[in-house]
Write a structure and sequence with these properties.
The chain has 321 residues and is of the alpha/beta class. The protein is 33% helix and 22% strand. A six-stranded mixed sheet has the order 6-7-8-3-9-10, with helices on both faces. Strands 2-1-4-5 form a four-stranded antiparallel sheet, with helices on one face. It is globular, with a radius of gyration of 20 Å. The relative contact order is 0.14.
C-alpha cells in the first residue's frame, strides 16, 4: 500500500485551564497523533475526556484562561504558534473546515441559512452573481441533507438536527484539505447519521482530503474511520487501525475494550465506576481504579504514551482467549 502523506502532525499537545485560586485543570495531556491524506481518524471517548478541547486548541478557539503547549503542524504551519490573524484568514474554513459541536452557537441568529451559505460560498470560492450563489447554496445544502424548503429560515426556527446539518453544509463549502467534525451526528436520527457519515466519507475520498472526527458514537466511527484514537481523562490511550479495533484482534487497552463491550449489540457490559476529575488526576494511570487488570504499578506511575498507553495491555493471545 502506498504510504500516505501527513496532513496534520500533533506532538505533545497539552491544554491546561487556569482557575481562580491557582487551580489547574489538565484537559489534554501530551497528545501525539497524525492525520494522513485521504483518511478519517476518529477520536473517541466518553463526554468530558478532552476531545473537544483538543479540537479547539487546533483552531485557536480556546478561552482566555487556557494555555496550550506542544506542536500541531498543518502542512508546515504550527497551529499552536500561529497568531489569530493567520488562523482567521488562512486556516479556518480554507485549510480546516469545522463542524462544531454546538451548531446553534456558530450560526448567525439574525440571518437565514441561505444567506449564511451564500456569504460563505462567495468568500471561500469566489462565486459571484445572485443566481450562481443561489444554485451553489442549494447544492451545498443537499450535500448535508439539509432541506431546500428550510433555507430561508433562521437558526432559531430549526431543530437541533437541522442546525447540525446546516453547520455541516457550511463546513463543506470550502472543500478544505482537513475537516474537523466535532460530534457531527449529534441530534440526528439513525438514518440521517448514516447519511451524514457517508457524505463525510465521500468528502474524504475526493482528492485525498482528510477528516478528524470527534465522536462518542462508536457505530458512526466504525462506519467511517480508517484509524481510531481513544481518549480517556485527557490522554490518548490507544491509537490503532479501525479494522483491528472493531474486528480482529480488537482493542488492546482495557478502557477501549470496555467501550466496545458497553455497546448494546455487543456484550453490553458497562465499565464500573466513573472517570476521575480532570482537576484531580491520580499520580498513576487514570483508569486504574476502574480496571480489572490494574496492579500496584498502575497506581504508582502513568504508562508511557504510545500506541497503547497501558502497563498491562491485552495482547492477541488474551483477546483470542
Amino acid at each position: 500500500m502506498t504510504e500516505r502523506s501527513t496532513v496534520l502532525a500533533v506532538r505533545g499537545l497539552s491544554v491546561r485551564f487556569l482557575l481562580s485560586g491557582g487551580r489547574r485543570i489538565a484537559a489534554v495531556t501530551d497528545a501525539h497523533f497524525d492525520v494522513h491524506a485521504g483518511e478519517c481518524l476518529a477520536l473517541i471517548g466518553e463526554s468530558g475526556c478532552g476531545k473537544s478541547v483538543l479540537a479547539s486548541a487546533l483552531l485557536g478557539l480556546l478561552p482566555a484562561n487556557a494555555r496550550s503547549t506542544g506542536e500541531a503542524h498543518l502542512d508546515g504551519l504550527d497551529l499552536l504558534a500561529a497568531d489569530e490573524r493567520t488562523l482567521a484568514r488562512t486556516v479556518r474554513g480554507r485549510r480546516i473546515g469545522l463542524i462544531p459541536q454546538s451548531p446553534a452557537a456558530h450560526l448567525t441568529p439574525v440571518r437565514t441559512i441561505r444567506s449564511q451559505l451564500e456569504e460563505t460560498i462567495a468568500e471561500l470560492t469566489g462565486t459571484r452573481g445572485r443566481a450562481a450563489l443561489r444554485t451553489a447554496a442549494e447544492k451545498a445544502a443537499a450535500r448535508a441533507a439539509f432541506p431546500a424548503d428550510h433555507l430561508d429560515r433562521h437558526p432559531h426556527e430549526l431543530s437541533g438536527g437541522l442546525a447540525q446539518r446546516a453547520a455541516t453544509a457550511l463546513a463543506l463549502v470550502g472543500d478544505a484539505p482537513l475537516l474537523l467534525a466535532d460530534e457531527p451526528t449529534t441530534g440526528l436520527d439513525r438514518h440521517l447519521v448514516d447519511r451524514t457519515v457517508d457524505e463525510l466519507r465521500r468528502h474524504v475520498d475526493a482528492a485525498d482530503r482528510s477528516l478528524l472526527m470527534i465522536t462518542h458514537d462508536l457505530t458512526a466511527a466504525e462506519r467511517i474511520a480508517d484509524r481510531v484514537a481513544v481518549m480517556y481523562a485527557g490522554r490518548i490511550v490507544e491509537l490503532t487501525d479501525a479494522a483491528a479495533f472493531f474486528g480482529t484482534p480488537g482493542p488492546r487497552h482495557p478502557y477501549s475494550r470496555g467501550l466496545l463491550q458497553a455497546l448494546p449489540d455487543r456484550a453490553f457490559t458497562p465499565i464500573p465506576g466513573m472517570p476521575p476529575e480532570l482537576g484531580d488526576l491520580p499520580d498513576g494511570c487514570a483508569f486504574a481504579a476502574r480496571c480489572a487488570r490494574a496492579t500496584d504499578a498502575c497506581a504508582a506511575r502513568p504508562p508511557l504514551t504510545g500506541t497503547v498507553a497501558c502497563h498491562h495491555p491485552h495482547v492477541p493471545e488474551d483477546i483470542r482467549a
